[in-house]
Amino acid sequence: MTIHSGHPFADPTPDPVRRFRGRLGGSVTLWTAGDDDRRAGLTVTSMMVANGEPARLLALVDPDSDLADELARTGRAVVSLLAWPHRDLADAFAGVAPAPGGPFRQTEFVDTTWGPRLADAATWAGVAVESTATVGWSNLVTCVVEQVTIGDDDAPPLTHRRGRYQAPPPTVS
Question: Which of 15, 64, 102, 125 is the most buried (most CB within 10 A)?
């Protein structure tokens, strides 16, 4: 066995645009959609909020994901802001960690008008899909914000940069 100094799964010819995007970083959100028949979810960091009347959320979603199919089928979603303790759940929904029984069995979800909502998400939005367009290798999903719940956000936010979750800063006493 040989131990290499580099990452064993690193791309031998890394995409400079992907590397640029990775350096932007951002808060990790969980997009969930579906109903009693089917559910799908995906972690999304490539997202922005456009304030206005009505406000909108814009996100880049993998067109081959189950979430893209559920958004097309239901036209609705729940967008939950994830906190530091949700990092294992984020990996399960990203498909990079095992999720016995599926990622929805990893924790509790509450049914809403917009789909399943992460029960312990302090801050979340219910959205309706307004349009979808192909942009690069992604779907640009534009959603109208119909409901927003702002919680206490006691836990530090889950942020992602350069392929890793960023540890929250230490608290000062």
Answer: 125
The CA-atom distances, in angstroms, between 162 and each of 56, 86, 107, 116 are 27, 18, 27, 29
61-79 as b/e: b if 16+ CB within 10 A: beeebbbbebbeebebbbb
Q: Quick one: pLDDT at residue 25?
A: 74
Q: How far apart are CA 33 and CA 61, in angstroms?
A: 13
Give dist(CA 42, CA 115) in Å, integer: 13
CB 141, CB 71: distance < 8 Å: yes
Per-residue model confidence as pLDDT tens digits over 124-134: 999 999 999 99
Is the overall model pTM greater than 0.85, yes or no?
yes
Q: What is the dihedral of CA 33, 66, 26, 126, to 10 degrees?
A: -10
Using one digit for the tens of pLDDT, what is the confidence trace for 62-95?
A: 999 999 999 999 999 999 999 999 999 999 999 9
In whole angstroms, what is the distance from residue 45 CA to residue 31 CA?
A: 10
